[in-house]
Amino acid sequence: MHARKFTRYPTDTSVTFVIDSIIGEHQLYLKDAGQGGLCFNARGCIKPGTHLDIKIPLNDKGFDTVGKITWCQPLETGQCQVGIEFDESLTLSIIEKMALRH
Fold it and tell me: Cα Rg for the chain, rounded, in angstroms?
């Protein structure tokens, strides 16, 4: 197992995704987030390498970023846990705001 580059913070912030291979917007709740990426549970698996636009609501305005699926693991619940790597690292203040909503 590799060491993480950034600390992960637990959060249940809702985010909206636009995934390049799936039509429409999808709203999900995060499991955790860090400066380099985030993790959430999805209804089904999403192929690693898939790109997506991410909208994160913070206070009165949102934050938009882009990333790609780096891993996807089926869960016993029938859902899949999905890991996303951001194209650019988020600032720690954005991650702290997401974690404070937890």
Answer: 13
Would you kindly state where each structural domain of the chain is located, as residue ranges? 9-100
Residue 51 CB neighbours (<10 A)? 14
Instruction: Tokens for 3, please give them.
Output: 């060491």
Q: CA-CA-CA-CA torsion for 68, 30, 59, 93, nearest 10 degrees? A: -70
Token pair, residue 89, equals 């690292």
First to last CA, the chain: 27
Please, which residues bridge with residue 30 across strands?
Answer: 40
Decide if pLDDT at 89 tops 80: no
Q: How far is CA 91 from CA 34, 62, 94, 95, 102, in A?
A: 9, 14, 6, 7, 18
Q: What is the pTM of this model?
A: 0.77
How far is Cα of residue 73 from the mean position of the Cα atoms in its chain?
14
Task: Given CATH 2.40.10.220, say whether it is the number of domain 9-100.
Answer: yes
